[in-house]
């Protein structure tokens, strides 16, 4: 989704706070929430589900003296089943700080302060370091989750997305600012995680958006205004461009690395691309303005966040046939599947909430967010990541 000059609309939203949390076991980090919004003492209260959200579980209401709301979180834990314990990291397009909440003990584990408009978030494979795209500034922030040590890495104006390589050695950050043309710059910054320094700037297409790594780490894929750029991580050079004039946005890679799935939000389509040849092998209508896509660990199912219909489309990954539509919050723009595949978390941009979907029956089992004294309208949930406990 973009403005008339090609700049992503998400940059035009006002900056406010985000509230609420839920996860199975481990830690949920809310990027941009004030510490008082997640205070864990006092009593718990709740509101009924939103009119467009078919669920029996209520969303927790947060105040400065509101408890964690374990009853509401119980439905999330139940739907997760045997899913492994993990941390969930939820990035909100707002300024302030990062709150770390240990849901096993219902306590705040830490915070990161001094952020501006944080957007993308990615975690090292060992769960030790969180990398946050500080999109209102020129930095990617590396936060040591155990110690709270924060390193500011200058990458260029307005980084939008970050991804960590499977072996944890590299971080790629898409840099959206600058004056190289409509939509911003054309650079992907490469960060060495051993030194937390930028070792290369890779020129790609105008307005780089999302970035993902292949499962073996040999390749990175970047969506831009005009196509998908394929980068060799060994050489830090573009090796192929897959043209897509419809303006690709979200991207996911199948667990075996053989297939790419790309959303074209302006065209309302989802592309299926053979990773070996770069050939488009399928296309399907995927809802109103599909923004993000995620694939289940067994490679069978795709979940697409459809911004303009306040819903998630469920597609068969082999055939691209739509098998269901799930109502979520307002303006869904991020989606992630939990490590065990039992849950799909959807970040709602306008609601400022997270809709949790159980993949067993594709129903929303909890909506987390909202509450008195907060403004959820601008707490856009722009990125969600899962990682093991450090």
Description:
This protein is mainly β and 390 residues long. It has a single domain, classed as YVTN repeat-like/Quinoprotein amine dehydrogenase (Methylamine Dehydrogenase, Chain H, 7 Propeller), CATH 2.130.10. It has one helix and 31 strands. The chain has one helix at 70-80; strands at 27-31, 45-47, 59-61, 87-92, 96-102, 107-115, 118-123, 129-134, 139-144, 150-154, 159-164, 170-175, 187-192, 197-203, 211-213, 219-223, 227-232, 237-243, 248-253, 259-264, 269-274, 280-285, 290-295, 301-306, 311-316, 322-327, 332-337, 343-348, 353-358, 363-368, 381-387. Strands 6-5-1-4-31 form a five-stranded mixed beta sheet, with no helix packed on it. The protein has a four-stranded antiparallel beta sheet with strand order 7-8-9-10, with no helix packed on it. A hairpin with a 5-residue loop joins strand 7 (118-123) and strand 8. The longest helix is centred in the first third of the chain and has 11 residues, at 70-80. It is globular. The two termini are 35 Å apart. The model is unreliable at 1-72, 101-108 and 370-378 (pLDDT under 50).
Number of discrete helical segments: 1
Poorly predicted sequence stretches spanning 5 or more consecutive residues: 1-72, 101-108, 370-378
- The quaternary structure here is single chain
How many beta-strand elements?
A: 31
Structure keywords:
390 residues, mainly beta, Methylamine Dehydrogenase, Chain H, five-stranded mixed sheet, four-stranded antiparallel sheet, 1 helix, 3% helix, globular, disordered N terminus
